[in-house]
Amino acid sequence: MIGKRSGLDLETVLIKNLGRHSGQQITVEGWLYNRRSSGKIMFLIVRDGTGLLQGVVAKKEVGEEVFAKADQLTQESSLRLTGIVHEEPRSVGGYEMHVTNVEVIHIAQEYPITHKEHGVDFLAERRHLWIRTPRQTAILRVRSEIEHAFRDFFYQRDFVLADAPIITPAACEGTTTLFELDYHGEKAFLSQSGQLYSEANAMALGRIYCFGPTFRAEKSKTRRHLMEFWMIEAEMAFFDLEQNMRLQEDMVSYVVQRVLERCQNELKVLERDISKLENIKAPFPRISYTEAVEILNKAGEDFPWGEDFGAPHETIISSQFDRPVFVHRYPTAIKAFYMKPDPNDPKVVLGADLLAPEGYGEVIGGGQRIDDLALLEQRIAEHKLPVEAFEWYLDLRRYGSAPHSGFGLGLERTVAWICGLDHIRETIPFPRMLHKMYP
Ligand code: 4AD
After folding, report:
1. N or C: which end of the chain has fewer CB within 10 A?
2. Taking the domains of the chain in order of start, what are their residue ranges?
3. Superfamily assignment of 15-106 in CATH?
């Protein structure tokens, strides 16, 4: 049964904005989160996606009929509550409504996610419902704020939003993690990164960013890997590695401070230790890969120069710092084909990764790109990539090649860090994980 709007012609109010309506008669629309009753008085906890509100329904005030209607409400039934709101610090959300009318829109069937603890597998199978719980809505609201903050940051700095394609004819980040598809008889891949197209866009527009989904068929079942994740990628003509890092630290500081400013309620729901975020301000420390290897060996790791860091290594390195740390100048042999070798030491590249604190690992990968045609051709051959697919990319080095740099930030890893989550699966409404894509 879908109910009709009652005769009360009132604006509905979002629960998060109740503070603006204290003492007024208003209507809230939402779903029943929980209910307690003592025969004559009933407490309805309602959620609307922006917060929780406790409605107090007194039989004496609303009459038998409305009280009986409220009494049928099951968990997750949809409803409209009308009444006068006032501040009540002891109540969830800090406000309470003295209900004058309850309109039942739909009585929910027995809801599978109750208020007791459920295992993660049970919840993941029901992700379409799990996202309704206060913790999950808090995370998704922070995610939304982070996305807006990135866009505002770039907009304020005159960057052009230039979207990259999702269907691509060639690999950007190595051939082992490609999702292949049939493009009308031609082989194509889902994008691993918009970078190569961003480089073309930067040569056209100067400073650009793109923000879209990216795909990696990684055989990794870890708390940091998704098969489909969203990446903010920026590309700047005439930027060197140092300018690139400066932009990144300004961006990350801006985003963290925005979340602190605008998501206090959400961070409270998540029980995030805010003191760990308050000091996230530029400048961030910078260490070379070689210095990072020294840190590992001092910590007793016996780590050979030339290998890539795994998650435990990143945790050891980042634990030395109270804010994100740049690790720059990785060995050329372990980095992507497009990274520019350091002219002072070609064994390493002018690339930098940003490691988040508290063991959250790498959130940004980036660096300066090769701008020399012959060297880029050589690298493509060394990496056994099909040169024909990269002719357009090589054109960027034929016609007005310029030094340029860029980076990609993984949105979900950043959300996990800022929210203080144990696992990346909660950072996106519908995560795509190894062997798991339902619902
Ligand atoms: O270091 P990556 O592979 O860099 C690139 O793709 C560059 N082409 C970006 C650029 O310079 N425009 O990936 C960048 C970031 C990582 O630091 C990480 O945060 C995230 O993307 N990332 C993943 N996040 C979730 N699941 C995965 N499987 C990820 N792989 C990378």
Report:
1. N
2. 15-106, 127-427
3. Nucleic acid-binding proteins (2.40.50.140)
Per residue in 385-413, pLDDT (tens digit) is 999 999 999 999 999 999 999 999 999 99
Q: How far apart are CA 237 and CA 2, in angstroms?
A: 56
**Which ligand 1 atom is nearest residue 227's CA?**
28
SS3 188: strand
Distances (CA, A) of 167 to 186, 321, 380: 12, 39, 21
Rounded Cα–Cα distance for residues 269 and 44 (Å): 20
**How many residues does the structure list for the chain?**
439
Q: How far apart are CA 376 and CA 382, in angstroms?
A: 10
Instruction: For this complex, say whether ipTM is above 0.95.
Output: yes
DSSP string, 267-320: HHHTT--THHHHT--SPPPEEEHHHHHHHHHHTT--PPTTPPP-HHHHHHHHTT
Residue with tokens 């060297």: 375
The region that residue 120 occupies, defined by phi over 0 for left and psi between -120 and 50 for alpha, beta otherwise, is alpha
**Topology of the domain covering 127-427:** BirA Bifunctional Protein; domain 2 (3.30.930)
